[in-house]
Every structure is written in structure tokens, then in C-alpha cells.
UniProtKB/TrEMBL annotation:
This is Chemotaxis protein CheW. It is found in: Cytoplasm. PROSITE patterns: CHEW. It comes from Anaerosolibacter carboniphilus. GO terms for biological process: chemotaxis; signal transduction. Gene3D superfamilies: CheA-289, Domain 4 (2.40.50.180), SH3 Domains (2.30.30.40). Keywords: Chemotaxis, Cytoplasm.
Length: 150
């Protein structure tokens, strides 16, 4: 039985997970510098250990309410096409292990273009966690725009 580890993060009251192998680091929130003519869900850029890092606000990307920052807000950093990209989340508090039998395929009601970044639904006792592939949250066109942000 194969197990995977997932970083669990929150957007509002909902829990999401991302494969820990895709996460470069989790950083405390830093105010970003706005960049003109970027998509609405791009908060801006930050200097993260000498690298200019575009910051994506996942709540804005998913059209969720309540875009606010507090002491629990974190930035989950991954690499997309050799570019470091940060995703703002409300909280990133734990790492869990899930075995294959605890992961169901994404439900059919989440069909369409958005389904490509939902890798499954994790079952933990009385909780469910939507498992995401953050690399697929952006379209190819959006990834290209992110690559060109200086």
C-alpha cells in the first residue's frame, strides 16, 4: 500500500492538499509589489531569497470570498516551468499521509476545464480534503504571462 504526504492548507473554511513533493517551501506572508497589466489573481511579486517570485492569490483565482491577510496567512512556493511561483493561502498548518485507498477520484460535478488541477478527494476520518496540483491551476497562457513577469 503506497502512501503520499500532502501539505494541508485552508482557503476560508475549506481544506485543500498539495503533494509535498511539489512544494519547494512554505513562507510567511510578505506584502507584494503590484505589477501593472497582470491578471487580477496575481497579487504582485516579492523578493524571496534573492529570487523575484510572482504571487498568485488562490482565493481570487478560485473566485472565493474574503480575500484578507492575517498572522496565519502563508505563501506556498512551487516551481512552474523552472520559475518559482508563490500561492497565497489562509493557513498552511500540517502535513498528512494518505494511502491510495483514502483517495477518491474527483467527483463528476467538478467536470470541465477546472477538473485538471483537482487530483482527487482525500478522506480523513470525519474530514475531506480536495487534493490539488498547483501547477495546473493556471492555463498555459497564464503560465506564459507569469514567466514574463520581471
Amino acid at each position: 500500500m503506497s502512501e503520499r504526504q500532502y501539505v494541508i492548507f485552508k482557503l476560508g473554511n475549506e481544506e485543500y492538499g498539495v503533494d509535498i513533493m511539489n512544494v519547494k517551501e512554505i513562507s510567511e506572508y510578505k506584502q507584494s509589489v503590484k505589477v501593472p497589466n497582470t491578471p487580477k489573481f496575481v497579487d504582485g511579486i516579492i523578493n524571496l531569497r534573492g529570487d523575484i517570485t510572482p504571487i498568485i492569490n488562490l482565493k481570487k483565482r478560485f473566485n472565493l470570498d474574503g480575500v484578507s491577510v492575517d498572522s496565519d496567512t502563508r505563501i506556498i512556493v512551487i516551481n512552474i516551468k523552472s520559475r518559482q511561483v508563490g500561492f497565497v493561502v489562509d493557513e498552511a498548518s500540517q502535513v498528512i499521509r494518505l494511502s491510495e485507498e483514502d483517495i477518491e477520484p474527483a467527483p463528476e460535478l467538478v467536470a470541465g476545464i477546472d477538473k485538471k488541477y483537482i487530483t482527487g478527494v482525500g478522506k480523513l476520518k470525519d474530514r475531506i480534503v480536495l487534493l490539488l496540483n498547483l501547477e495546473e491551476v493556471l492555463s498555459e497562457d497564464e503560465k506564459e504571462k507569469i514567466q514574463n513577469i520581471q
